[in-house]
Sequence to fold (97 residues):
Amino acid sequence: MEKIVSSTELQKNTRQIIDWTRINDKPVIIQTYGKSMAVLLSYEDYQRRLQFAVDEKQPTITAAEQAELKQIEELTKSLFADASWEEIEAGREDRWF
Fold:
């Protein structure tokens, strides 16, 4: 369960509140005049939440989509297997001019 402290208490006991958050790995809600204004998290908790947010934004690729991507990759490799990078770049330039 999170801990709730006033901003005045935070000012007076900053080190102890930071230590409590770090040791217990639980958030501290900071209130001003009884209204929640901010949250103090341990660094580990912050990193977990950040990674979770990044993971949630990553698209989920099904096995069928992975297989299709692999086929496209293999086809692309086979199409350009004999071409040098310079030839590929020259081909791109020809298309645009």
About this structure: Residues 60-96 form one domain. DSSP finds five helices and three strands in the chain.
